[in-house]
Design a protein that fits this description.
Order of helices and strands: HHHHHHHHHHHHHH
Largest sheet: none
Strand content: under 5%
Number of strands: 0
Length: 394
């Protein structure tokens, strides 16, 4: 560990970074069950209401590219508090929106503020830790970041009927205020002696050096492919489980929660391997094998249990990739931590956004398995290149 803290502060830091990592997925996914209700209230089209989700995702991607590099110049704590304050203001404005167009604008700024949490959680972890300790911290962050998108719609579904979409946004507002209050004891992890001293213009040219670092970009792309597999599952699971296999909403929620545990288990297991780079290769291999078996089950007519077992194993593999790829990418990009975290996060959201509409083309099971298979093939090809060079990146 690069900085010496007391045990109480380390516990606080773990919990705080984990909460920041869970924050953006809650912002995007918790209100999803209330979309039909919002359509009726605003008397808007389905596409206009769905645009509120797209605007938030766009804000989350753009915000990481802002708060990440700026924190390299001005420090983590000021940017973190600014991001949380922006989120609080945007959430209040969203609650009092009188039109869907206004809501969509405020949702973009809500995502912009929420992005500060997840991008700075990785930056702070890399500031404070290295090697195995960094992997442990990012395993917690990765597990939460993987579980939160899966469980958030379930949480939202429990409250949407009783408190409506504004009630869900009030819960998000309370979370934002709580995180802002909890950020007060946080100690600056990026001292002034290590900050970027060049101009703002030159700060944004630094990313070119990072994007031209082959080892870093391979891990970023592997992370992006794993994130695409996760979003492919999230966007298709409700249709496959409820429409194709006839499960009730309750059973769907239970299975959603069980499958999310696979991500956390995979993230933690990756720490048990002596070489963290091997976890990435094993995880990519697991995604690839599961995608092939899913296609086989589909054409052979193997139903629910074939789907469920393979999905759980695939998400377990995704969890292994999340921890290992993020740790290795941040290690390779340590010279520009803010940019390194920003590119990792933005790539994940970008790949997830591309995949989400693709699984709805044609027959949803077949299209989902094809999308997951394509991403898994790309991930294992990239992983094979890294694995062949593992002595250099271990």
């Amino acid at each position: 560990m690069e900085q010496s803290f007391g045990k109480k502060y380390l516990v606080y830091l773990y919990l705080f970074l984990g909460a920041l990592a869970a924050f953006p997925p809650l912002v995007t996914d918790m209100y999803l069950p209330a979309l039909p209700m919002m359509k009726m209230e605003f008397r808007a089209t389905t596409s206009a209401v769905q645009m509120s989700l797209a605007a938030c995702i766009l804000g989350l991607a753009a915000g990481q590219l802002v708060f990440g590099p700026f924190s390299d110049k001005w420090g983590r704590k000021p940017l973190l508090k600014s991001a949380l304050l922006l989120f609080i203001i945007a959430t209040v404005a969203s609650i009092f929106s009188t039109s869907i167009e206004a809501l969509n604008v405020f949702r973009f700024f809500q995502g912009l503020g929420g992005a500060g949490g997840v991008v700075l959680s990785r930056s702070v972890a890399t500031d404070c830790y290295s090697g195995r300790e960094l992997a442990k911290t990012l395993a917690v962050i990765g597990a939460i970041n993987g579980i939160a998108p899966v469980t958030a719609p379930v949480i939202g579904g429990l409250f949407s009927e009783s408190i409506g979409w504004k009630g869900i946004f009030c819960i998000l507002l309370a979370i934002g205020v709580l995180l802002y209050a909890v950020s007060v004891p946080f100690r600056e992890s990026h001292p002034s002696t290590k900050r970027y001293e060049g101009s703002l213009a030159s700060l944004f040219t630094q990313v070119g050096k990072l994007l031209c670092t082959p080892a870093y970009m391979r891990y970023v792309l592997i992370f992006g492919m794993a994130n695409a597999v996760l979003f492919g599952y999230i966007s298709s699971a409700s249709f496959i489980l409820q429409n194709d296999f006839g499960l009730s909403e309750l059973m769907f929620g239970i299975l959603f929660g069980i499958n999310s545990m696979g991500i956390g288990a995979g993230s933690m297991l990756s720490l048990r391997l002596r070489n963290i780079a091997n976890a990435s290769h094993i995880g990519c291999t697991g995604m690839f094998v599961c995608s092939l078996l899913q296609l086989c089950c589909y054409f052979l007519g193997i139903g629910f249990w074939g789907y469920e077992i393979l999905v759980f194993v695939m998400l377990f593999s995704v969890g292994m990739v999340f921890t290992s790829a993020t740790t290795l990418a941040m290690t390779e990009g340590r010279a520009m931590i803010g940019w390194a975290s920003a590119v990792v996060g933005a790539t994940g959201f970008m790949f997830g956004g591309i995949v989400t509409p693709l699984v709805g083309i044609g027959e949803i099971q077949l299209s989902t398995y094809c999308v997951m298979g394509s991403c898994s093939v790309m991930s294992i090809l990239l992983s094979y290149i890294v694995y062949k060079r593992r002595p250099a990146v271990a």
